[in-house]
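Re: the multi-chain job from yesterday

Posting the exact lines I submitted so nobody has to dig through the queue logs.
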Amino acid sequence: MTATAEPEVGKARLRKEDARLITGQTRWTDNIQLTGMLHMAVLRSPVAHARITNIDVSRATAMPGVALVLTGEDFAAEQGSLPCAWPITEDMKSPPAPAMAVDRVNFAGEAVALVIADSAYHAADALEAIDVDYEDLPVVLDLEEALRDNDLVHPDLGTNKCATWIFDSAEAGAGTNVEDEIAAADVVIERTFRQQRLIPAFMEPRSVVVDSTAGMFTVWSATQIPHILRWMLSAVTGIPEHRLRVIAPDVGGGFGGKLQVTPEELLCLLVARRMGRPVKWTETRTESMLSAHHGRDQLQKITLAARRDGTVTGLKVELLADMGAYLRLVTPGVPILGAFMFNAIYKFAAYRFECTNVFTNKVPTDAYRGAGRPEATFAIERMMDELAVELGIEPMKIREMNWIKHEEFPFTTVAGLTYDSGNYEAATARAMELFGYDELREEQARRRASGDVKQLGIGISTYTEMCGLAPSRVLGALRYGAGGWETASIRMLPTGKVEVITGTSPHGQGHETVWSQIVADRLGVPFEDVEVLHGDTATSHKGMDSYGSRSLAVGGTALVYAADKVLAKARTLAAHMMECDEADVEFASGSFSVRGTSTARTLGDVVLAAHVAHDLPEGMEPGMDADATFDPDNFSYPHGTHLCATEVDTETGMVKIVRYVAVDDVGTVVNPLIVDGQVHGGLAQGIAQALYEEATHDEMGTLTSATFADYLVPCAADLPAFLTDRTATPATSNPLGAKGVGEAGTIASTPAVVNSVLDAVRHLGVRDIEMPMSPERVWTALRGREDSGAGEVAAGGLGSIDAQGGQS
Amino acid sequence: MIPAEFKYLFPSTVDEAVRMLAEEGEDAKVIAGGQSLVPVLRMRLAAPTALIDIGGLTELTGVRDDGDSLLIGAMTTHYEVQRDHLVQDHALLLKLVTDTIADPQIRHRGTFGGSLCHADPAGDLLAPVLALDAVMIIAGPSGRREVPASEFFVDYFTTALGPDEILLDVRVPKYTGWSAHYEKLNRVAQAWSIVAVAAAVQVRDGTVSAARVGLTNVGSGPVRAVDVEAALVGQPASAEVISEAALRASSGDGYKDNLARVLTGRALTAAVAG
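And the result, structure tokens for all chains:
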């Protein structure tokens, strides 16, 4: 299987898809123009909870260019309920989730009416002519208040509690009883953390086009999950799956935000079916923020038990997780993905996780980069610092005392997962060296002694995560509705070029480059000779799509196996062509040869012979194609050590990151440039949670951060130069040794930043500061010398006008 | 962007623009660089019946030397202000402020006059224009008039400009040889200031002979910190004097009051250091 002289795997190739993506010389969903295409616009509720008493569409219907105006009533009989694929418990409460509200709205931003017109302009104009009468209902926003069930989001359910999911190490036989450990502990630390609500904020807004020519429904969508979407749309609408084709053309980012079956996808399909004409919907940014699913939003009560010497013994996690108003595709499962990660890299004797999912009158939450794991990592890494402070032990030392040693792998954790490999010592040593840990500690001491206005803090995050989603049997055990395998096909074309079909669905990751590198190495063909096809259910007939850092570890593995099948067949044919025993055939650099002779055939020769099929061995089918599907036995477990130094301006509360080191172990790296890119982007998003981003609501439940003027996504100018490096401990669960890197930066960085800021100001009496650590919150904490979750002053700009209109 | 329908007009002279504005009535709106108006249109927070695009009025572009003062054309882009030698030599504060506005793309589109007419109290140019005693030169149906900056900014997003008037030029007295600094606190590069302080000082033989201090985003419009200025003039340009003066930027107890004091101190310190 060795290939070209210089292996492709490990090469920092520029991404072959970038030129077209960056210049826009490609097909995005919104670029698609079909003959006779209509445009859909969505009227959204301005109120968070109300009964719809009347909708008058008569004026709108008479507006220029308007073909049809529809309300929820019009679709009540056929829209069904948007799917939730993850009923986490048998008794989980799952309210009907209409794509368009019929008689009540449950969050501000929920669709209440549609205009279908001959242009996007006419459709938007007519929205303003629809009159809706709302009768306000009590709004449920706060998690703890919601639990009291005084006011109900869904009165029919009788409660705002959706489900409670428990893991207990004693019951599972994975550890001791946590209450016993707490009772016996020298030190018990209890803290409550808030994971604020975030908005995925992908670059390309969502967009859908549906064509229904000749009874065949083609859905183009800016989605991460064309395969799952096809299945679910078929299930909801009753359109037979074989009459539905879903295409995700080039997609501009997702971060989990496009891991969804959206109301608008369903509505476009219903409209196209009803009207028999193609229809397009593309959202505005504000519309996206008001209606696409949000992420995080948990209240975490954590209890950690330890011995005086710093050894951790027990961990109890009590979560409240905000579902928002409805359960979307994997809404209830997101916190459960974190359940296995709170114990992280540490050897707890006992662990208990209990999560109560709660309904509120807010946009539904669902997957957002990391999905459950950033929340877990944040909590445990904050707690390790709290323990270090409590016991007066150096924070890195207390981690080292408790983490799984290199020689202890494979290691079965108290949460019941088996970590196959890892080397926390190596990653940490490299990070400490790059960071200049000791020098920064000295600088910190100097600034403290001199009472410097700008205090220095150092934050640590020694994280791990589980990715490579996922072993299908584990998903089944967790009551998830689908499998976690992935598939790949290789078609050898008669000219020797290669088509790869993948069931993963890239939306910015660079799969075309990486998949080409893998195939080039495996088959000994030039990188340029490989074309990767994806995202179209007609060409890629099966797949489980892209999320959860799974594409390379699972989909890349399927590709390796498909290549091996091609080679196996080619070897047989080559032996036949060279009239030798198959055992004597060697393969190197794209060429088969007879061992010890000069007789050889290139792979291209063999492929052509297979294609013309003039002389094949008895029983061999013509052609040289192969399919493979891989279902992993285990998750993969990237890990690493992130170190962050921040400067906190004690007069203004402003936080500045002055040094950031990320040493990640994502296993074998196929393309270091792409891995760096993933880490950089992930860091930006994790840092953003710590310092900048937050979805905020007024007391009526209106989203007050519905533009990028109010929802602060940092740009390059706001972020430090990242120092990144890697250790490479290959995963043992796949032949590539790859673990996945899509979420690592996001998962690791948030606690590193927060620990760093607290480390800078703890000696001034500050115990905690809520995220995002805005200058005002930091200043208030410093002034009040107490926990700070103070609100924000308006920062002016658009935010001081009124940016809540969702109909733009 | 999907704004409501509007008529688009492209005048080639100031007189034509003024006439169009009168003809189209109160619901017409002048568009310059569009960096504030376009987002408002996009979100349908405003739906003017007509947009009068003054991008073709080349006489409103550029900075001219007018003896004791500079005349900055309303359509001069931020990028042009940043690079203008007259501004650098005679109104350094404006250059330093403009350097901090948004990002290069916006600085190439957004205009000096457009920012002032939009009158967002978080906008960076209002406070320095106020502090520098600039005068707005305005054209309307009854001819031209001049309005000092102190009377131009009326309230949130509101100026003395009538619905039938267009800002032509801004007259900025020359501050040749003054040193200046703009101290801005914003959470991310593209966010508006939470608070910012624009300071220009003239120091002769170690003594502050004159000072101008303006505060961004502490009220419904820009604020001239006259008490701070008064506490500086005639005093040595020392750290003690600056600390004392900065305390007068605000007397309140809130976060923005604190920022006004802290950032005033920092702006003056940097300005004095030249």
